[in-house]
Amino acid sequence: MDQHHIIAEVLERQARRRDERRKFLKAAGMASATVAASSLLAACGNDGGSSGTPNTTTAPQISDADILNFALNLEYLEANFYAFAVTGAGIGASLQGGTGTQGAATGGRAVAFTDPVVKAYAAEIAGDELAHVAFLRSALGSAAVAQPAIDVGTDPNGAFSSAARAAGLISAGQSFDPYASDENFLLGAFIFEDVGVTAYKGASPLITNSTYLEAAAGILAAEAYHAGLVRTALYAKGLQANALITAAGKISDARDSLDGASDDDQGLVDANGNGNIVPTDANGIAYSRTTGQVLDIVYLTSMAKAKGGFFPNGVNGTINMSTAG
Prior knowledge:
With 325 residues, the protein is an all-alpha fold.
């Protein structure tokens, strides 16, 4: 399938989902996207005693719009990476504007796929991620943040190379090119996909509007399918070239080293060497990341920062700080 047919398929899929977005917005009615988040982030109460002393210490208020905009920043990243890989260009200008500082996605290029299965996966995920951007922008309306500056390039000092270097896949001065082969593309996708799943799961308890929560759950399910596709493809190829499974494990370890003391992230095999396509806890439940932990990974830092890595100038919106590990 040539590039023009792939673009046509992506646009056709987006058109089919336009009706779904309209239904979503109609169902949401006049509900404000700025409703305060749950009591977990509301004002701290007193100790429950009868002193009657008013509480003057409050935690920052995070709205549903803040949560959706945080998700939109991540969708901008994923959508551009897959769009470049499949079509050779990032997402269109009509899906980039909004509040905050608008930036360009730079450095990507088309992958010369040789495996038709990987090519098909890439095209489908590209369409889904483009639809996620359009959907969230429609839900947020004028409150939607603009696409920030995004680095998806192959420079030795760029985000992908820095991530690969942190994982021990390349040495100082070398570059990692996720567009060089089917295998490199899958490793590049692996960096993002598990993070997206844990980000949506971690954010879901903070959403107060049930309509927005249902929509977020739907996106979470789609991201989980994407992560499963990428992990399955990598594992299958890794059975023939074990270095791929080893590389995925190193990426998993690097993510764990960035997002704090917990050891939740998982590679493609378990401690006994068995396949581990679905990373879960002992109860078979996927784990969560806080927004700060997610930004640790995409900023490629274990310190509290407002920019770095794949977002060289930071993300747009209220939620923009990584967490000190």
